[in-house]
Amino acid sequence: MSRDTFRAPAGGPSPDLSDEAYQAQILPHVSRTFALTIPQLPPGLASAVTSAYLLCRIADTIEDEPALSAEQTYAFLQRFAAVVAGTESPAPLAQEVAARLSERTLPAECDLVRHMERVIRMTLHLNPVQRAAIQRCIELMCSGMHRFQRTASLRGLERMSELDSYCYYVAGVVGEMLTELFCEHSREIAARRAALKELATSFAQGLQMTNILKDQWEDRSRGACWLPRDVFAAHGVELEQLTPAAADERFAQGLKELIGVAHAHLRNAMAYALLIPASESGIRRFCLWAVGLAVLTLKRIDHNPRFTSGAEVKVSHAAVALTCGCTNLAVRSDTILARLFDWAASGLPLAPPADVRRGSRAAAAAAQMLIPHESYEYARDLSRPLRTSDGSSVP
């Protein structure tokens, strides 16, 4: 997730600012990418996806706060999941978490936590299917993400399968949620649900792995490494001892292997995007812009494997504009879009796409075995009244 500097107006947002306007105001300051892609969605769907993303960002902010102990973090995350489920009031939790955020948390994220109730109110006005999809995502994310964060170290993850699992908790669940939201929006998309679900976690892992590779040095500065030890050990690299200066050709070879895996996931992501009917051009653009920018980022990493900060491999504004423009022109043509992807990805190493898809599916299945069944069952009872901090119910 991109992290941008944001200064909230003195005293916070105006009381006259609607909850929907607040979401639109805060989004560009917590994610440039989603601020670019979400407006491409149909209005009702855009509102649901905005709320969902901001809720995920609040969970991420709680998880990343260094001033909290592991026990405090887990307790806050479980309470946050209850808030999203409508069984706990958001205002007390927002006050408690905001009071404990340190200077390491960006101002925009602090502002978002303080105004958690605005996002919750927007979420509670969504229909039951949308709420269920978002609730499931947050519950799985809050339960699984913390399992990895509490053992994070510079040693990295033990093996590639652990990276698959980590990506599922922080991104794959989002891919599954988006698929449910898309299917709820369109009967034509819902007719392709099975095929979309087959690719959803791989799509999300492609985007997440690209971010992990881009941000690896920034993560290390915070004491975390999400790279798999087994991949780099095979090339004679000990991740615990790694520094930018020590990132030699052996490290570049391990990195190239992961670039190939991410590339394969992004090919599955492209297949996912092309399953969206051409008539739903806004949803297609939402998916395709994200895929295109990820591929261009991978190309920059592949061309400069000894980069020392994410800024060195960040896609330029001109490249973003070109990607969006080309996609817009070809958005209804599967053939041209596929050729554009092949052109953008030319020269990248490639793992077998079917193999990485199996890995992401296995991670999703294993993750759901660890979560109580009732916490992710879509058929759970949503008939109970949902309430805000003042005790009023929301229809």
Account of the 3D structure:
With 395 residues, the chain is mainly α. The chain folds into two domains: 21-151, Farnesyl Diphosphate Synthase; 152-379, Orthogonal Bundle (Farnesyl Diphosphate Synthase). The chain has 18 helices and two strands. The chain has helices at residues 19-30, 32-37, 43-64, 70-85, 90-100, 107-114, 116-124, 128-149, 160-185, 187-190, 193-214, 216-221, 229-233, 249-275, 281-303, 317-330, 334-345, 353-370, and strands at 386-387, 393-394. It has a two-stranded antiparallel sheet. Strand 1 and strand 2 form a beta hairpin. Helix 4 runs antiparallel to helix 8, helix 11 runs antiparallel to helix 14 and helix 11 packs across helix 18. The longest helix has 27 residues, at 249-275. It is globular. Mean pLDDT is 89; it is low at 1-12 and 372-395.
Order of the strands making up the biggest sheet: 1-2
**Total beta-strand segments:** 2
The appropriate CATH architecture of the largest domain is Orthogonal Bundle
Give the low-pLDDT segments. 1-12, 372-395
The percent range for strand residues is under 5%
The first-level CATH class of the largest domain is given as Mainly Alpha
Q: Mind telling me the CATH superfamily name of the largest domain?
A: Farnesyl Diphosphate Synthase
Dominant shape: globular
